[in-house]
Structure formats: structure tokens, C-alpha cells
Amino acid sequence: MTSNLPSLPSEVIEKIVAFLPLPDVCICMLVCKEWKEMFSSEQFSKNYVLNHYNFDDEEQPSGHLYAWSDPEEWFHYWDDNEDNSNVWVFSNPPKRWKCGIVHLASYSLVSDKQLKYKSFLRAVYILSRIKKAAEELGLDCGAWANEGSGLIETCLFPWDKDSLPTATDIISLYGFNPEMQKNPLVRGEGEDKDSGDESSDDEEDGGCVRWKSLSTSYDVDVKKAHAFFDWMKEIFSPYIQIGIGCDAMNPVPCFILAKLAPGWVGGLLSSLALT
Q1: Taking the alpha carbons of 210, 215, 219, 221 in that order, is the dihedral positive or negative?
Q2: Can you list the alpha helix ranges (DSSP code H) found in the chain?
Q3: pTM here?
Q4: How far apart are CA 166 and CA 79, in angstroms?
Q5: Where do the segments described as Disordered lie (predicted)?
Q6: Are the CB atoms for 40 and 118 separated by under 8 Å?
Q7: Residue 148: its pLDDT value, please?
Q8: Residue 173 CB contacts under 8 Å (≥ 6 apart), including other chains
Q9: Which residues, other chains included, contact 24 with Cβ-Cβ below 8 Å and sequence gap of 6+?
Q10: Model confidence over 145-170: pLDDT tens digits?
Q11: With the C-alpha atoms ordered 70, 71, 73, 74, is the resulting torsion angle positive or negative?
């Protein structure tokens, strides 16, 4: 049967599809070769990510970024200078885009002339799913092993190496205080430098679902929580968890990171209250 509907110009089709959720865009790629090429192009990815996510920086720090900027919000175990000039976490504090992703203060999206938008879109989309799930499931970090709890942030930074960043890399990238650089907590990437031996399976305890250092609240849809963690296991394989300042401050900044897309490492950023 031949359709009598007039064909639309490709520019119009592209603008229409750009309003769809990303999973629906992927379905549109299955229609024909022309559509697959159109919707997997760098230009479409650029238009899509810039139209769907706000990459302006927040005017004032909030959440963890605010807490880490105020020495009254955390404990430190090193000697103060008389003027407290050595009481800080980051030499150049990270920033948060208005879409909710924490990024390095030194990174500028506008200035990145080598940016591959297709990879960037994939990474941002993954983090947006994590952020949404964190809100829906009451996700926090640190309840594992009674270490305390911390709400979830998402973070992202460029990374062109094959291996995941080490604790030394994270310390350098984020400019952590020298007082915080000893004895980082490191888990994952095939080696466990922490005394705990975490299971790779998610566990359920009275309606609370836990996986690694992540846990949900006690009133969530358990089936939905397991489905989310199953998805996380695929994305975060391999992963690395890094806590900075374990012997120097409390709570400590804690990262759970994976390669989200070519050229990008990101994941969860939280505070881990060590007792």
C-alpha cells in the first residue's frame, strides 16, 4: 500500500524528533538508513544535548558544593593556621551545571573545540537517569557498613585514557587540600584496598535495596530498585570508588566512577561519613 502523505523535508523531521526522549530517538534510527545517519550525527547530538539540558553554571554553590566551601559544615583533623587559611577542601572548587551535573572548574563546554557531542550526550543522559532514580528511590551513599549517609550528586569530566582514574588522578584533577591526600579509600577496578569485601549483587533489607555503597530509602518500589541497580551494574563495569581525606576530615568526598562514553568519566559524587 502506497502512502499518499507528502514527505517532509529532513530539516523538519530532525526538528520534530529532537523533541522526543532519547530512547524514542533511538527507535527512530531503526526506521531507515537515512534516519539512522541523521539522528546519529554529531550535529543532531549537539542540537539535542544543548536543547534538552542547561549547561549554565549555578550562580551560587548548593548541596555538597556549598557544604565543602564552608569549614563549619565539616570536621577536619589537621592543625589550623591562625587565620584558618589552610582549612579548605578544593584549591579550585568544582561547579555545577544547572542540569545538576558537577564539573571541574577548569572545564568550559563553550571552549572545548574538540568536543564530540555524540559521546557527551550519552554521558549526560546516563547521569540524568541516575539523578532521576536518586530522587525517586531516595538513593544515598554511605549507609553500607554503618558508615553514615550522603545524598547523591552526579559528576563528569573529560578522560582520554583507557584505564579509569586513580586516587592520585582525582586528587590532582580536583585540587584537593594536601592535608587530605594520604590514605584514600579505594574500591573496584579489580583491587579492594579497603578492609570491606563488598558483594557485586544488590541486597534487600526490609524494603531497602543496597548495592556497593548505595542504598535506597525503605519505602521504595523494590522491583524498580533492583531494575535500576541491574542497569547500574552494566554501566559501572568496571568501576572505581574513591574516598579522599579519610584520615583528615569527616564526612569525606566520595566518588563512584566509570567510563560513561568515549572520552568521558563520570558517576556519583557524595559525602561518606566515616565513624
Answers
A1: negative
A2: 10-17, 22-28, 33-39, 42-52, 63-69, 117-137, 167-174, 222-235
A3: 0.87
A4: 27
A5: 182-208
A6: yes
A7: 43
A8: 104, 157, 165
A9: none
A10: 334 446 789 999 999 999 999 999 99
A11: positive
